[in-house]
Write a structure and sequence with these properties.
Layout (H helix, E strand, L loop, with lengths): L3 E8 L2 E11 L5 E8 L11 E10 L2 E7 L4 E8 L6 H13 L1 E16 L4 E14 L11 E7 L11 H22 L1
Parallel strand pairs: 4-8
Antiparallel strand pairs: 1-2, 2-3, 3-7, 4-5, 4-6, 5-6, 5-9, 7-8
Length: about 180
């Protein structure tokens, strides 16, 4: 399905990960996904950022949603609306799709999605967050998410498999969760 190239780069003694995957969409369009770990989304041009998704921890479980364009399980998040900051988008999407409040968050990384037809690209951002419910999940106002689950992070592949990029996002989110827990106390 995808040709994978993993690169580990050393930058000022900080280990970062870059993963490059090729993907063919349902319409036959070929894309290149370039994932990079990131601690600060301000390095990205906001006008090229299109979505924010997160590994949202509610206690020791992660929250996943069913539905969306693919009608399958995945992380919670969505599209950046005009005039919103990245953080505002993330908080709004988590509230709309899971009825949860974002208590603390950190960047995990971003994926540059390159359309091979014309080399145009957009960025998709990935966060880790500590969340708590506003109340029970009833429905997503947009109707995209129809159900949520709280699962053990190690079990995510029973629900979705995003290849090497997904592995890295979940792995890094689990690592960063401890940092977030220290920030909340």
């Amino acid at each position: 399905m995808a040709r994978l190239l993993d690169q580990v780069a050393q930058t000022d003694s900080l280990k970062t990960m870059q993963i490059i995957e090729e993907y063919t969409g349902k319409s036959g369009v070929k894309y290149i996904f370039e994932y990079s770990d990131c601690d600060d989304f301000s390095i990205l041009p906001i006008e090229e950022c299109r979505q924010t998704y997160g590994v949202c921890f509610c206690e020791d479980k992660i929250v996943i949603g069913f539905g969306g364009h693919k009608n399958s399980w995945g992380l919670i998040g969505g599209t950046i609306e005009k005039g919103e900051t990245l953080d505002e988008t993330f908080a709004r999407e988590i509230q709309e799709e899971a009825n949860m409040e974002v208590i603390k968050k950190l960047p995990v990384g971003y994926q540059k999605v390159i359309d091979t037809r014309d080399n145009s690209f957009v960025y998709q951002l990935r966060y880790v967050a500590i969340t708590k419910p506003f109340g029970p999940f009833v429905s997503d106002p947009a109707g995209s998410i129809t159900e949520i689950k709280h699962i053990d992070p190690k079990d995510y592949k029973q629900y979705f498999n995003w290849g090497k990029t997904g592995e890295r996002v979940i792995q890094r989110a689990v690592e960063l969760r401890n940092k977030l827990l220290c920030l909340t106390n």
